[in-house]
Amino acid sequence: MAGVAALLAENPAVLSTLTAVGAAYLVWLGVMTVCKPATVEASADAPVRSARAQLLTGAGISGLNPKALLLFLALLPQFTDRSGDLSLPRQIGVLGLTHIFNCAVVYMPVALLARVVLRTGPGSPVGSLARPESR
Questions:
Q1: Closest of 40, 31, 102, 29 to residue 67, by C-alpha
Q2: Distance, CA of 4 to CA of 76 (rounded, Å)
Q3: Helix or strand run (H / E) with residue 106
Q4: Residue 99 to residues 13, 43, 95, 132, 135: CA-CA distances in angstroms?
Q5: What are the backbone angles phi and psi of residue 54, rounded to the nearest 5°?
Q6: The dihedral of CA 90, 92, 95, 99: what is its sign?
Q7: What are the angstrom distances between the C-alpha of 70 and each of 13, 47, 63, 88, 116?
Q8: Which of 2, 35, 118, 123 could pair with 89 as two cysteines, CB 3.0-4.6 Å apart?
Q9: Structure pTM?
Q10: What is the DSSP string of 1-61?
Q11: Confidence check: pLDDT of 24 > 90
């Protein structure tokens, strides 16, 4: 990713084209979401997955997310300095790792709070154990 971003930093026209393509892709995703919304059904037969399996699944989905890749390609090159001490790929790498760290700092508490809220909801097995019905 750092190499591709460094190449894009050398050619602003390609970066502009990629930005426009990324914006069109996001608009298409939004239109498809409105036209064909996903439905979620709860299943009692759903297999229980370990925390490690859930973490690996989330990391894989996030790592393969084309929107995130387009974000790195479209935004990071404009924050590089060709005359800096670090090479362009290293600058992109530092910027990317900084973004990942910031996301972890913000989204980890959000995920932990969502976990607490979802476990105490009325349809949750944990929530129904915590609040026995009065007769």
A1: 29
A2: 11
A3: helix 88-119
A4: 25, 36, 6, 44, 53
A5: -65, -40
A6: negative
A7: 15, 34, 12, 18, 32
A8: 2
A9: 0.48
A10: -HHHHHHHHH-HHHHHHHHHHHHHHHHHHHHHHHHS-------TTPPP--HHHHHHHHHHH
A11: yes
| 21 CB-near residues (< 8 Å, 6+ apart) | 70
Name the token pair of 74: 């479209």
Query: CA 135, CA 118: separation in Å to the nearest integer?
Result: 25
Degrees to nearest 5, angle at CA 95 with 54 and 66: 50
pLDDT digits 0-9 by tens, 42-60: 666 667 788 898 888 888 8
Give the per-residue pLDDT at 130. 45
Please report the pLDDT score of residue 106 as a whole number. 94
How much of the chain, in percent, has pLDDT values that exceed 90?
Answer: 13
Residue type at 9 in one-letter notation: A
